[in-house]
């Protein structure tokens, strides 16, 4: 396959197809209002992405409950007051020709009290002085994910991307290291994945036939176990619960170091599964047109663009214009980002990523 294949449309199990194989990664940008409503800066950022040629644009991680907050000025989708801003985002992406998805997030044990967060650990040992969630509390948070998806649908957003990565609540529950529960949400692999399955099934039952469900999964750190995650993913595919899997790798070329899959790429561990109707894409250092094209050969249906999309908001258009396109080299100056139209709030946050901004 070649770079031009990235511009072939991609049907999804529900709703409209992606017009091409480019998906914008969820990127926290800390520029919303303090109560989680989208700000003018959120709209400018999404507006740029909407015009950037993506097949699907994911928003940053958005809180499904006020207590699940992890970031200052995090976008929220837990309150109807947030609907007008979300609707404006949905309209912008649709007008630009793309699909939209809100990333549904709850920080779990890492919720930050200084921002109004209420740490919600799977185990009593994760946060000193905080006892594990009761079964009823787990079910309440599950229902908040589902209610947030219904809110996204009401805002005209095409779907949601369920955040199951980086040790946040759904990933935390899957981790044998972070989850020592003895109720139906702990113990066996099936029990530790139960919250994720119930969120997916609940969203599917509560939303219409065109509503799209994505799932973001990471495989490293937080005590996560590759073999187990592969098994859970196989079951998600078997039960046809999602439209797409977004594999959050920090480098798509990464090779597994130990265990059954040692020597294989992390990506191939998942592309080798029978995904049925679901689509699969990956994020991780996709900085050139060539690498994006190669990933189709490596079994991806689409590519997920993060940092390269911060540097040039219209990465897909750049690739269309030039099949040899290479993203500017990191790090860049704050002025470079300012010239690109990013807000001071977003730039301040990015300055915390040493590899991104000088
Ligand atoms: C500034 C920044 C913010 C991010 N915010 C989120 C987020 O809100 N949700 C998420 O799942 N991943 C988040 N990530 C991870 C990215 O979505 C992506 O998976 C990662 O950056 C690797 O892709 P890349 O190499 O193309 O940047 C963030 C990454 C960066 C650099």
List keywords for this structure.
single chain; 358 residues; alpha/beta; TIM Barrel; eight-stranded parallel beta barrel; 8 strands; 12% strand; globular; binds flavin mononucleotide
What this model shows, in words?
- The protein has a single domain, classed as Alpha-Beta Barrel (TIM Barrel).
- Strand 6, helix 7 and strand 7 (279-283) form a beta-alpha-beta unit.
- Helix content is 34%, strand content 12%.
- The protein has an eight-stranded parallel barrel with strand order 1-2-3-4-5-6-7-8, surrounded by five helices.
- It has twelve helices and eight strands.
- The protein has helices spanning 40-50, 83-95, 135-154, 169-174, 189-206, 226-238, 266-271, 289-297, 307-311, 315-321, 334-339, 344-350, and strands at residues 22-24, 56-63, 99-105, 159-164, 212-217, 244-248, 279-283, 302-305.
- With 358 residues, the protein is an alpha/beta fold.
- The structure holds flavin mononucleotide.
- Flavin mononucleotide (FMN) binds next to strand 2 and helix 9.
- The site of flavin mononucleotide has 22 residues, from strand 2 and helix 9.
């Amino acid at each position: 396959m070649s770079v031009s294949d990235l511009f072939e449309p991609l049907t999804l199990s529900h709703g409209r197809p992606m017009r091409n194989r480019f998906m914008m990664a969820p990127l926290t940008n800390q520029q919303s209002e303090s109560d989680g409503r989208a700000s003018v800066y959120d709209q400018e950022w999404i507006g740029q992405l909407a015009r950037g040629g993506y097949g699907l644009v994911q928003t940053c991680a958005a809180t499904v409950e006020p207590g699940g907050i992890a970031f200052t000025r995090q976008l929220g989708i837990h309150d109807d007051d947030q609907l007008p801003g979300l609707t404006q985002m949905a309209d912008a992406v649709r007008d630009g020709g793309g699909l939209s998805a809100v990333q549904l997030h709850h920080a779990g044990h890492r919720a930050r009290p200084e921002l109004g967060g209420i740490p919600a650990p799977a185990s009593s040992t994760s946060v000193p002085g905080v006892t594990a969630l009761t079964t009823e509390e787990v079910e309440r948070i599950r229902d908040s994910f589902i209610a947030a998806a219904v809110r996204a649908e009401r805002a005209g957003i095409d779907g949601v991307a369920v955040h199951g990565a980086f040790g946040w609540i759904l990933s935390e529950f899957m981790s044998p290291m972070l989850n020592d529960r003895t109720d139906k949400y702990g113990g066996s692999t099936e029990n530790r994945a139960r919250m994720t399955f119930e969120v997916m099934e609940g969203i599917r039952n509560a939303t219409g036939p065109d509503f799209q469900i994505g799932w973001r999964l990471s495989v490293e750190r937080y005590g996560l176990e590759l073999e187990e995650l592969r098994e859970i993913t196989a079951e998600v595919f078997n039960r046809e619960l999602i439209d797409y899997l977004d594999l959050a790798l920090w480098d798509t070329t990464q090779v597994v170091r130990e265990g059954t899959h040692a020597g294989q790429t992390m990506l191939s561990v998942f592309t080798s599964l029978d995904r049925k109707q679901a689509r699969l894409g990956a994020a991780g250092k996709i900085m050139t047109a060539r690498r994006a094209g190669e990933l189709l050969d490596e079994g991806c249906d689409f590519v997920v663009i993060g940092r390269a999309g911060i540097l040039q908001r219209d990465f897909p258009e750049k690739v269309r214009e030039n099949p040899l396109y290479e993203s500017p080299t990191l790090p860049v100056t704050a002025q470079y980002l300012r010239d690109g139209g990013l807000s001071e709030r977003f730039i301040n946050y990015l300055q915390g990523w040493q590899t991104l901004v000088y």
